[in-house]
Amino acid sequence: MSPLVRTWISDLTTRFHVTLTEAWESESWEPYSSIMEMSGGEGESHGAVVLSLVTLFMSMIEAFFDHFKSMAEAAAFPVSIRPEWVSDMEDKILKSFSTFLNNLLKLFTAERAWHELMPPPPTYAAISSDDGVEQFFEQFKRMGRGIEKGLADKGLGKKRTPFDEAVVAVAADAARSARRMCVQVASVLYCKEKLKALTAAFQRGWDGVVARVASFEGRTAPPPPQLALHENGAIVADAFLERMYTFFGAKLVFEDLRRPLFDDLYSQPSRESLAAEMGPTLGTGEPPLVRRLLDGVLFTVQQLTPSRPVRDELVWSVLTATVEALMRVVLDGEPSRSFTADDAEKLAADVKLLQDYVVARQGEVVYGLPAEVAGRGTRPLHEVVALMRQPTGELRSELRRALDGLEGAPDKHIAWRVVLHRQDGEPIVTEHRAELRDLLRRSPGQFVHGKRKEES
Questions:
Q1: Mean pLDDT of the residues in the chain
Q2: Residue 191: which pLDDT band, with cuts at 50, 70 and 90?
Q3: Does 451 or 105 have the greater pLDDT score?
Q4: DSSP state letters, 133-177
Q5: Are 247 and 114 in contact (CB under 8 A)?
Q6: How buried is 319 (Cβ within 10 angstroms: 0-12 exposed, 13-18 middle, 19+ buried)?
């Protein structure tokens, strides 16, 4: 009978998959209940498809045990169910759950790793040649400090949307992306929570088997199955959530908000002189640029993610992605950016503004992080600010200490990038060109994002 039972289980699973596919194809990834203040439950921010998923799983379990119950009642005899059949059914549900999560992750990421969303870093190929260093620093003078000027030289400058209009447009795009991704995260959380109910359904069904067997004198119930759906399913869900949390901020910052952060930040249009003031910054405008870019995103997180631990994960992801963007702009922003020691204070002000922005304050920023966590998130930028503050002569000494690997020296990949983007850094780069060339081949693609806060 065992092969027949296994075939029946497979057939049952296939029929339910057809129904689930139809539900998946019609999913809009809007919150199941759009009136969050009336729903009062985390599950209300999930998509409709997961209701179908959980309902189908529950129906499969009930159909399985009801089938044998009907057989027992018709035969007036306790038809036995083997524990391995129950385990097989449980395994089918777990595999279906994993397949669903895998499909959701593919949709969530469009099958991209988070770091693939970042603009490609410059190669710094110019400093590999004898006269390349001079050419590298000459491009700062040709372009000024303005990306608009560089684009205008290529006949592209007039096609760009004015900065403030672009900010409004991309912020709206980011808020829409955040809404869809929050619903998808909530959908995984809903499924994870319902694993308890599914395991309980298995247990109820098995208890019914035991009761029926016990009603016949002299019959002994088979040993109970080892039910592991809740435990194993939670492990699978947590692994997927971890990847979704990391991707969340990357999608918003590296893709949706790319223009104002990667293209325009610290690269003010129409900048004709290297002595001109650095801008725009995160504090530019009213309200400040950081709020115009992220208010919609974080309000959406607050609205659709009542769970504080999950909300912290999503806000942390946005924070570290933003820090990563600032690191890339300051350290790998050539040729449209170059800095002086005086610019360090403006960057320091931006770091403080960003950190304060994501810190929770009673009755004001309910989506915020604890102050110590926000501080860990922005910590990499403090090292950059400290290096940028140093006069060129001291910066030369710090680079030498970093290249020699001395204790307490700054990170060499960061130190040499600060020098490369220093307006008067040409003599230092010329002096250390051979060592810097070697560093180019081993340079990290990213600095911050993707690291857990415990490791920061």
A1: 82
A2: very high
A3: 105
A4: HHHHHHHHHHHTT-HHHHHHHTT-GGGSPPHHHHHHHHHHHHHHH
A5: yes
A6: buried
